[in-house]
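Researcher: Sequence recovery benchmark, item below. Answer with residues only.
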C-alpha cells in the first residue's frame, strides 16, 4: 500500500467518515469545514486524482458530477499505519507500544477491559 501525504489523508478521512459516496464539491466543502482549510476545488481534485492513482479510490461519473468509491477500507489503512508505527518506534514490540500509549494518556476502565479481551481472545 503506497504511503499517503498528510493532505491526502485528510481527503481520505473525509471520504471514510461519510455515510454515502461523495461528489467532488461535497468533498471540498467537508474537508474545508472539518479541517479549517481553504482549498479550492482544483486542489482537492489533484488530491483525489492522486488517491485514484495510488489505488485508494475509484471514480465514476454520474451526469456532470464525479463520485468517489473507497477501494481501501479505513480499518485496512489503520492496521497498516499501526504496523508501521510499531515497527519504527517500538522495534516491532507491541507491548512497548501499549506501554507508551498508557503513559501518554489515561485509559478508561472500559478501554482497559476491551484491550484485555482483545489480547485474551486474539
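Model:
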Amino acid at each position: 500500500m503506497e504511503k499517503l501525504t498528510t493532505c491526502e489523508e485528510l481527503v481520505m478521512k473525509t471520504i471514510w467518515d461519510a455515510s454515502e459516496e461523495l461528489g467532488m464539491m461535497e468533498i471540498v466543502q467537508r474537508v474545508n469545514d472539518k479541517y479549517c482549510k481553504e482549498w479550492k476545488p482544483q486542489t482537492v481534485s489533484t488530491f483525489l486524482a492522486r488517491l485514484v492513482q495510488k489505488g485508494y479510490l475509484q471514480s465514476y461519473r454520474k451526469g456532470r458530477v464525479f463520485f468517489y468509491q473507497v477501494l481501501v477500507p479505513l480499518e485496512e489503512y489503520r492496521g497498516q499505519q499501526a504496523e508501521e508505527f510499531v515497527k519504527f518506534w517500538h522495534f516491532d514490540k507491541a507491548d512497548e507500544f501499549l506501554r507508551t500509549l498508557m503513559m501518554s494518556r489515561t485509559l478508561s476502565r472500559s478501554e482497559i477491559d476491551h484491550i484485555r479481551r482483545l489480547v485474551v481472545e486474539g
